[in-house]
Design goal:
Length: about 270
């Protein structure tokens, strides 16, 4: 069973933001084009420290492209990105050790065992006491039964948990999560969400979450950014969006935006 007890017990009281502390993410006028295809257009948003912000939108909305640009994996066509106060991609080498990500679309080396993969990433991030860190993650994320199994021989759900362990290996200040509970059964997914909540409480990390699970977003996110066709079309806390659209859950809000429904106030939803 996934075990958050030690994480919760070690959680300090929430810290106040430092005076003058830059936001975790600052995006201004961000665009990405592939010839005539526009993946992201004039995107701007801010993610404050110690917050969980959800990046939502239908397939093709630009979520994965945006995350790739935030990580410095893709160069923007135009616009600026600052991560933890550093201009990207120029300052990438300064911030990458302080951040990490997980995505079901990014695999680890298939022939290496789970343990070997985690050791590689612990070395890449210069993790102190890597053996102890890997053991703690294996216990918390229920990986102990297949640590010595090649990654390529794992089930989809097991891979998801290993990828999350990789993302947490360096205890990042900024965590980018792309579908972090993909392929997990409801019980395991619920425990993973609890683990993420405990991790954020303990470390005061900032989280940017892309998910199609609206219940997950309502539980974890303080703020929601709604994308469509590469543009930011609405934003607010989950409660604000539910009130604005007159809906009982975020799935209905999502459908309103995806299907170009009008809001109850008569304005276009997107």
């Amino acid at each position: 069973m996934l075990d958050d007890a030690k994480l919760l017990a070690a959680a300090p009281q929430e810290a106040m933001p430092l005076s003058g502390e830059p936001p975790a993410i600052l995006v201004e006028g961000l665009s990405k084009r592939y010839g005539e295809v526009v993946a992201v257009e004039d995107l701007g948003f801010t993610v404050g420290r110690r917050r969980t912000v959800a990046l939502l939108g239908p397939n093709g909305a630009g979520k994965t492209t945006t995350m790739a640009m935030l990580l410095g994996l893709l160069a923007p066509t135009s616009g600026t990105i600052r991560i933890l106060g550093e201009l990207m991609p120029k300052g990438r080498h300064k911030v990458l050790p302080r951040m990490n990500f997980t995505s079901p679309y990014v695999d680890l080396p298939q022939r290496l065992t789970v343990l070997q993969n985690l050791k590689v990433y612990a070395e890449l991030y210069a993790v102190p006491r890597p053996k102890e860190r890997i053991a703690a993650l294996a216990a918390a994320l229920d990986l102990e039964g297949f640590l010595n199994r090649p990654f390529g021989r794992l089930s989809a759900g097991q891979k998801t948990r290993v990828l999350l362990a990789k993302a947490l290996i360096n205890e990042p200040e900024l965590l980018l999560l792309d579908e972090p509970t993909a392929s997990l059964d409801p019980d395991t997914a619920d425990q993973i969400r609890g683990h993420l909540e405990a991790y954020q409480a303990r470390t005061h990390a900032t989280v940017l979450l892309a998910s199609h699970n609206m219940g997950e977003v309502e539980r974890l996110a303080h703020h929601v950014l709604m994308l469509k066709q590469g543009r930011l079309v609405d934003q607010g806390s989950p409660a604000d969006l539910l009130a604005r659209y007159g809906r009982d859950d975020l799935e209905e809000v999502f459908l309103d935006i995806a299907r170009d429904r009008r809001r109850p106030d008569g304005r276009e939803s997107a």
